[in-house]
């Protein structure tokens, strides 16, 4: 009986720690109503939000018109397109922010990144515990 009680207590503690961060996660539609598109100020869009570990970014766009690559700092600044097999291409790509730090995404179609500003940088922070 004591072992069972300890297991239940351990389970409740885990739920008490994990569940708040899961239930408080936010799903951000990148670009809001505009979605993932050319000629949109993603810098301003991201500046107005707080991205927390566990949140999700959803890139919405017409299939075949755009794509999404997760890139490093150099690729972000110079719009260097990674190999095509690394692209998200569903038109409804959901990326969960699993770790804190800066995360960078670009569109690899044509000159969408370099000429039309299809690049997103978000800073992800750890959840605040109350």
Query: Which class best fits the helix and strand makeup?
Result: alpha/beta
Gyration radius over CA: 18 Å
Low-confidence segments, ≥5 residues, pLDDT <50? 12-19
Q: Architecture, according to CATH?
A: Sandwich
Considering DSSP H and I runs of 4 or more, what fraction of the residues is helical? 25-40%
Q: Distance between the terminal alpha carbons, to the nearest Å? A: 33 Å
Q: Count up the domains.
A: 1
Average pLDDT works out at 88
Shape: globular
The tally of beta strands, per DSSP, is: 7
Biggest sheet character: 4 strands, mixed
Element-level helix/strand string: HEHEEEHEEE
**Order of adjacent strands in the largest pleated sheet:** 2-7-6-4
CATH fold annotation: Immunoglobulin-like
CATH superfamily: Cupredoxins -  blue copper proteins
Instruction: Please identify the top-level CATH class.
Output: Mainly Beta
- As a percent range, the share of strand residues is 15-25%
Main location: membrane
Pfam families: Cu_bind_like
InterPro entries: Cupredoxin, Phytocyanin-like, Phytocyanin_dom
Subcellular location: Membrane
């Amino acid at each position: 009986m004591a072992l069972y009680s300890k297991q239940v207590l351990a389970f409740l503690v885990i739920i008490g720690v994990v569940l708040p961060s899961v239930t408080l996660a936010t799903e951000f539609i990148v670009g809001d109503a505009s979605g993932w598109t050319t000629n949109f100020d993603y810098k301003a869009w991201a500046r107005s939000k707080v991205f927390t570990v566990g949140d999700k970014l959803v890139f919405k766009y017409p299939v075949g018109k755009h794509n999404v690559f997760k890139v490093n700092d150099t690729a972000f600044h110079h719009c260097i397109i990674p190999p095509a097999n690394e692209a998200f291409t569903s038109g409804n790509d959901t990326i969960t922010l699993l770790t804190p730090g800066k995360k960078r995404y670009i569109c690899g179609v044509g000159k969408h990144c370099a000429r039309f500003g299809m690049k997103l940088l978000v800073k992800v922070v750890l959840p605040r515990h109350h």
